[in-house]
Amino acid sequence: MSTIRTAVIGFGVAGRVFHAPLLTADQHFTLDAIVTGSPERQQAARLAYPAADVLTTAEELFGRADQLDLVVVATPNDSHASLARAALDAGLDVVVDKPVAVTAQQARELVEAAKAAGRVLTVFQNRRWDGDYLTLCDIIAQGQLGDIRQFDSSFEWWQPSIGTGWKDTTGPDAGGGVLYDLGPHLIDQALQLFGDVTDIHAELDRRKDGAISDDESFLSLHHASGVRTRLWMSTLAPAPRPRFRVSGSQAVFTSHGLDPQEAQSIDGRKPGETGFGLHDDARTAVLEGPEGARDVTLKAGNYQEFYRRLARALREGGPVPVDPSATIRSVEIIEEAILRFSSAVPMG
User: Fold this and answer.
1) N or C end: fewer C-beta atoms under 10 angstroms in the chain?
2) What's this model's pTM, rounded to 2 decimal places?
3) How far apart are CA 121 and CA 328, in angstroms?
4) Rounded to whole angstroms, how far apart are CA atoms 198 and 326?
5) Residue 245, Cα to own-chain centre: how many angstroms?
6) In degrees to the nearest 10, what's the CA dihedral of 55, 56, 58, 62?
7) Distance between CA 332 and CA 328 in Å, rounded?
8) How far is CA 123 from CA 95, 160, 188, 263, 265, in A?
9) Cα–Cα distance, 157 to 154 (Å, whole number)
10) Could you please report the per-residue DSSP string of 227-296?
11) Phi and psi (nearest 5°) for 246?
């Protein structure tokens, strides 16, 4: 069968570090075009992917839609909905990087537009294939923790100065800030594990001098299943919390450090290479209970699985790797968190 002709719009971290390497590592896809308005990124794209056409605007791309099958939207958050809609209108299937849209209403309209057009739409919730998360899913499914009571999850690192990228220079109304950046990952994982949320508490802070969006945020979610989720997001952590600490009636699961796939890709390592997705230091998680503790081997992270499942969906009509309708709830929770916190106390 012919390969799936693909274009990536955006060549920042999402396009350069995640999508382009994953697409070119999968024999079912070809990377035919890259869109970026930055001259520096255009040069980098040509060097890295000489077989791809490098274009300046999305309009150029949609003008040649008959030469493509799939578009990946890997641009700033506030352009996700409009670019995805334009791709659907051009008769193309679409992958949207998380979040699917800045508002839940935009997300719902986009899902309906895909249905009306008869096109495939999916969302790149790649953290469903983090190695530590896959490991935790297995531990829970095996009943090794007993009844889950508390789920603590964090993404934290040390970046004390305001950057020049859109995440630091746009406000929450345009999808800027750490909650819109990391919240879609952490919330999605919690919803996948424990189901819908009935109550939300939020603390959103601007701690960097001159910040216009949150750079350190906390959410507490109460699930209908009874589990209490606590999510920490920070770019100002001199030392991070455990990545996961999950407390059950029988044991506690703890893991440290972020999944290595992003850092490995930045270092030039390729998906599918030996050791890709595994921590180089062979770290383990820990399962601890009243009778003692034992190490748990971490699974390899596997973002390639997203595109493997997408290829099957496009060719065989099976389910997409991530149902876009299921991601709308994450956006609703982010919107509610911002509304509740901003009505209770000014961000400062």
Assistant:
1) N
2) 0.96
3) 13
4) 16
5) 20
6) -40
7) 6
8) 6, 30, 11, 22, 20
9) 10
10) PEEEEEEESB-SSPPPSEEEEESS-EEEE-S--SHHHHHHTT--TTSTTTTS-TT--EEEEEETTEEEEE
11) -120, 120
Question: 136 vs 23, 181, 245, 305, CA distance in Å?
Answer: 27, 23, 10, 17
What's at 163, amino acid-wise? G
For 28, other C-beta atoms within 10 Å of its C-beta total 17
Residue 205 to residue 213: CA distance in whole angstroms:
8
Place of tokens 């000014």: 346
Peptide bond into 271 cis (omega under 30): no
Asked if residue 99 lies in contact with residue 184, where contact means CB atoms within 8 angstroms, the answer is yes
CB-based burial label for 243 (10 Å; 0-12, 13-18, 19+): buried
Give, for all 348 residues of the chain, the pLDDT tens digit. Answer: 689 999 999 999 999 999 999 999 999 999 999 999 999 999 999 999 999 999 999 999 999 999 999 999 999 999 999 999 999 999 999 999 999 999 999 999 999 999 999 999 999 999 999 999 999 999 999 999 999 999 999 999 999 999 888 899 999 999 999 999 999 999 999 999 999 999 999 999 999 999 999 999 999 999 999 999 999 999 999 999 999 999 999 999 999 999 999 999 999 999 999 999 999 999 999 999 999 999 999 999 999 999 999 999 999 999 999 999 999 999 999 999 999 887 654 444
Q: Sheet harboring 53-55: ordered strands across?
A: 53-55, 29-35, 4-9, 70-73, 93-97, 121-124
Token pair recorded at residue 234: 């920070």
At 311, which amino acid appears? Answer: A
Would you give the DSSP letter of residue 4?
E
**Phi and psi (nearest 5°) for 322?**
-135, 120
Written as one string, the DSSP assignment of 15-44 is: IIIIIHHHHHTSTTEEEEEEE-S-HHHHHH
